[in-house]
């Protein structure tokens, strides 16, 4: 019985590996590495939809190098083990390139697989700085990393003539990293950190920290953690009469912040990844996405759409599906048709500019800041 | 801000925070005194109390408005409703376990806590619910020191509630029965005291006080969440232990001390907000080392 099963399995594998190259001959296949199951499935499906929309438009305009393009989805389930299987599946189906990568942890082990298989990989959402050293040159990150958020934040504070800053985190790895990096860069630029504070997650009363901040009297308060406790802190800061600028990191750019902070969230600044509703170029994308899939595009849809178009443009530029030529074209890319802004890469294959956008609380919702 | 301003401001902050801790700590200490149970579901009762107050407020705000009068009515009705919920929990979950080993009833309390938490999680979808009270931002400015009217009302209400409880326990027949039951349950039965009724009254009062704290927290901090009872439950338990668990004035004192410790711990150079809990819990350890019964606790160790 076991032997029979093994034979059947071997036969299926053989059939699978044969059908891969066969498909590639009458068209071109782009692989999508996204979580379409598991806890992050809605984001993954959203990214797959955005890529599909891009491919549809590419085909309508005559395809790539005269060939029609199709997609194949590898479901990484936001799980490092399953992502290895998904990446191997994509690598063995003869894809010309791969677009996607949502969870950084699940994207990390696939870098080696795509490098060994010599497949160009455009990473459209995952943005941990850990991905940078693991990249052997064939992967390109088009979402900004945490470093870029700090750069954007500092640029914004400087534009508002902020000189002293209070930084408040929540004691977890994410918010502490952002807080430490901000403190370091801010002090390097010759400015003063008035105070750094840490609050406990789930505590309702932040009056002691609020008093500490008021006694340090900074020009601005930067909250680096999530919206839940951030909302309470903002409310209590304003109730206690703090009148300086309040800014929050990308963990807090949720509409829920307005539920918690109420009117105190008016004028609060948030740094955010480029989501479709705030991108001026994305209007027609949002319309056609909504018409095709019945819901509005999610947070990483624009970047995945851009990533797919970028890969197509690079193949067109390379003039062939040769991986080395495509990677070379991506390295030199100067892609200006993006919804989320222009794409070109650093030496490390990361996005050359920060794609973080600045939002402001207005009338109980986020709006693009002036 | 000058140093004296900071000290006074943190004193006010500590009093407000301590009032919440004290109200919740009272429930722990009363239940422990009467049935020797560490009711770890008590933090969730506080959370449910907040939601009960929210529901009442959304019903009465049409006629009474959502200012302090609306909140006061919501608080009283939430106290009564959640008081009965406490009695119900006691009847369903704890009554059958009273003669079981201590550990079983402790685990039951943890289970009750999970049930309440997940029930509210299911009903709210894990979202933050804006409380909807409109209390205004007014207050008294003394130089750099700012005390809002809400803080006065809050500390005052907590004080009145605690004073009434103290009077109830020291002056009424039920209060005397509660004290008697906490000393010797079997003897009380022999003397014709309806022990189960006294236990029910204890749960009613403890849960009612937690509901008062929950409603006031919702109104004061502005939003409710299914997980909001967890941390304050732990802190209130700590407060009860500092004051001496089983002692009612001890719970009040412990709550205020813990609130003040946390507020000042944030401001002490070299400690700061990241270490304030280490500071508070070190004090707890010191109290337990040098006075294991807590500050106002009686030594009757053989009963624990």
From TrEMBL, chain A:
Keywords: Amino-acid transport, Signal, Transport. The keyword Transcription does not apply. Residues 29-364 form the Leucine-binding protein domain. GO terms for biological process: amino acid transport. The keyword Signal applies. Residues 1-24 form the signal peptide. PANTHER family: LEUCINE-SPECIFIC-BINDING PROTEIN, PERIPLASMIC BINDING PROTEIN OF ABC TRANSPORTER FOR NATURAL AMINO ACIDS. Belongs to the leucine-binding protein family. This is Branched-chain amino acid ABC transporter substrate-binding protein. It comes from Devosia oryzisoli.
From TrEMBL, chain B:
GO terms for cellular component: plasma membrane. Keywords: Amino-acid transport, Cell inner membrane, Cell membrane, Membrane, Transmembrane, Transmembrane helix, Transport. The chain crosses the membrane at residues 20-38, 45-65, 71-93, 105-129, 149-169, 198-218, 278-297. The keyword Magnesium does not apply. It holds the Pfam family BPD_transp_2. It is found in: Cell membrane. InterPro entries: ABC_transp_permease, BCAA_transport_permease. This is Branched-chain amino acid ABC transporter permease.
């Amino acid at each position: 019985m076991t032997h029979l099963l093994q034979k059947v399995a071997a036969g299926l594998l053989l059939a699978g590996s044969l059908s891969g190259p066969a498909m590639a001959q009458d068209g071109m296949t782009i692989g999508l590495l996204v979580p379409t199951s598991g806890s992050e499935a809605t984001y993954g499906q959203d990214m797959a939809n955005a890529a599909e929309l891009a491919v549809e438009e590419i085909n309508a305009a005559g395809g790539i190098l005269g060939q029609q393009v199709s997609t194949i989805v590898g479901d990484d389930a936001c799980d490092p083990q399953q992502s290895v299987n998904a990446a191997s599946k994509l690598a063995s189906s003869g894809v010309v390139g791969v677009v996607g990568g949502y969870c950084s942890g699940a994207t990390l082990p696939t870098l080696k697989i795509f490098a060994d298989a010599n497949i160009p990989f455009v990473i459209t959402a995952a943005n941990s700085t850990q991905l940078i050293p693991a990249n052997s040159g064939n992967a390109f990150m088009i979402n900004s990393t945490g470093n870029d958020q700090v750069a954007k934040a500092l640029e914004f504070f400087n534009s508002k003539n902020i000189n002293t800053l209070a930084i408040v985190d929540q004691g977890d790895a994410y918010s502490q990293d952002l807080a430490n990096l901000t403190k370091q860069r801010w002090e390097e630029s010759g400015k003063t950190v008035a105070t750094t504070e840490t609050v406990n997650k789930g505590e309702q009363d932040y009056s002691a920290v609020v008093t500490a901040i008021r006694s340090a009297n900074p020009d601005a308060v930067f909250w680096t953690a999530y919206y839940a406790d951030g909302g309470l802190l903002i409310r209590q800061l304003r109730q206690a009469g703090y009148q300086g600028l309040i800014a929050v990191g990308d963990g807090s750019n949720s509409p829920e912040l307005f539920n918690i902070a109420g009117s105190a969230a008016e004028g609060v600044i948030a740094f955010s990844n480029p989501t479709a509703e705030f991108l001026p170029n994305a209007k027609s994308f949002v319309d056609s996405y909504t018409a095709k899939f019945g819901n509005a595009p999610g947070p990483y849809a624009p970047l995945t759409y851009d990533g797919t178009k970028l890969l197509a443009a690079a193949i067109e530029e390379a003039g062939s599906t040769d991986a080395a030529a495509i990677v070379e074209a991506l390295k030199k890319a100067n892609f200006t048709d993006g919804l989320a802004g222009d794409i070109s890469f650093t030496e490390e294959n990361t996005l050359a500019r920060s794609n973080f956008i600045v939002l402001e609380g207005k009338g109980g919702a986020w709006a693009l800041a002036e | 801000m000058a140093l004296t301003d900071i000290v006074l401001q943190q004193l006010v902050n500590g009093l407000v925070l301590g009032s919440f801790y004290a109200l919740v700590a009272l429930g722990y200490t009363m239940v422990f005194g009467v049935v020797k149970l560490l009711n770890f579901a008590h933090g969730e009762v506080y959370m449910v109390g907040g939601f009960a107050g929210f529901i009442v407020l959304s019903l009465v705000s049409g006629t009474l408005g959502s200012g302090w009068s609306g909140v006061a009515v919501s608080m009283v009705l939430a106290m009564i409703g959640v008081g009965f919920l406490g009695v119900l929990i006691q009847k369903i979950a704890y009554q059958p376990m009273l003669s079981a080993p201590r550990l079983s009833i402790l685990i039951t309390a943890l289970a009750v806590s999970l049930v309440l938490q997940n029930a509210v999680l299911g009903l709210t979808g894990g979202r933050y619910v804006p409380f909807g009270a409109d209390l205004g931002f007014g207050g008294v400015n003394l130089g750099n020191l700012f005390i809002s009217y809400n803080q006065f009302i809050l500390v005052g209400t907590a004080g009145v509630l605690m004073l009434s409880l103290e009077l109830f326990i020291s002056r009424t027949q039920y209060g005397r029965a509660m004290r008697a039951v906490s000393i010797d349950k079997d003897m009380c039965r022999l003397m014709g005291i309806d022990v189960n009724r006294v236990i029910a009254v204890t749960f009613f009062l403890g849960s009612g006080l937690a509901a008062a704290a929950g409603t006031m927290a919702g109104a004061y901090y502005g939003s409710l969440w299914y997980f909001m009872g967890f941390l304050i439950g732990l802190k209130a338990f700590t407060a009860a232990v500092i004051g001496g668990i089983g002692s009612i004035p001890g719970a009040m004192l412990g709550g205020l001390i813990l609130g003040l410790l946390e507020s000042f711990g944030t401001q002490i150079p070299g400690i700061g907000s990241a270490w304030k809990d280490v500071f508070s819990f070190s004090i707890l350890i010191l109290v337990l080392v040098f006075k294991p019964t807590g500050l106002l606790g009686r030594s009757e160790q053989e009963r624990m």
